[in-house]
Amino acid sequence: MFDTARWTVLAPLLQAAGAGRDLLDDTIRRLTPEAVTQVVLNEIGEHGVRLDLHFDGRTTSHLRTDADVVVSLSLTDAVRGLYGTDERPWPSLAVRTAFAELDERGPGAWFAGRKGIARDVQSLLSALKPGRQDLGELSVTFGSDKWGDLHWYTQHYERHFARLRDEPVRVLEIGIGGYADPDSGGASLRMWQRYFRRGLVHGLDIAEKNVTGPRIMTVRGDQSDAEFLGRLGEELGPFDVVIDDGSHLNEHVRISFHALFPHVRPGGLYVVEDLQTAYWPRWGGDPEAGPGTSMGMLKSFVDGLNRAEVRDPQGEGSHLERDISGISFHHNIAFVEKGLNAEEGGPVFLRTLF
Ligand SMILES: C[S@@+](CC[C@H](N)C(=O)[O-])C[C@H]1O[C@@H](n2cnc3c(N)ncnc32)[C@H](O)[C@@H]1O
């Protein structure tokens, strides 16, 4: 039902890219250099130079194979540049250019004709080792509404996601955007793909979507269908990050949370956006955001954090009381942290003493 084969090469490669060279080399051999080369080419797109990739004594040429400018790199370094965490300069980089004959226009024209070489080479190298823009900049670049217009969310995302940025995360965002138009939407998926350079980014929408990207997978489905979400979590999870930016109907937000939170990895985060609808009756909210609303659900988790103060700390408690280790609220957005809530409470005699 879900295209899990899509990640057969990418998932282990993203994991191995942060490990030592030997382990990465072994992984490339196991996945085959051809398949890994295809991953690299999908990620970097078109460029006006030839790219020679070297691995285990073999060299293969890519991009504009008839170009006069050739950039040579080991395949391992290309993967580390894209998905690794190593900031050092390229260990294997070499650039070769064909020299044109000097003609009647003289050396000035000869040098002027070579000015574009650096630009072409740099464009390829920047694609092979993308820079680190912050989320506000990325939001503007990709046209996401998470920074600007009605929402100012990226500052909060930056604070909570910074520790995950360089990890090989799995992300799921409910709501791709663009509603019924299949060719519209996906701005935030593209933003996450760039922010999480080692991330696999999944988007769920009730409408058919044509959003593509080297590490983006879209799924069509309804966020109010718990059984469907359970299967999605089983096959594409566990997720490090789930973001609910879908219908924003209170009932849907609650169904999605209960169905998907079990598929969040310990240490991961479940984010709910646009919590203003918890106060709006037409969206299933109420002005007090009481029980039954999305905020009501989230507020109950706050009490769950302190369960050991009123109940037997050795008792089992609900899985949400055990598995939620923190919650942060900001204007219209909340971050629920998955982790063991196992701290002991104060001694029983204290509860009745004052
Ligand atoms: C606010 S837009 C998402 C914007 C997107 N997350 C972004 O940041 O670019 C909401 C999307 O949720 C989708 N949606 C609405 N109801 C849904 C449901 N029940 N299940 C899944 N998606 C739904 C809509 O089709 C729409 O594309």
UniProtKB/TrEMBL annotation:
What this protein is called in its record is: Uncharacterized protein
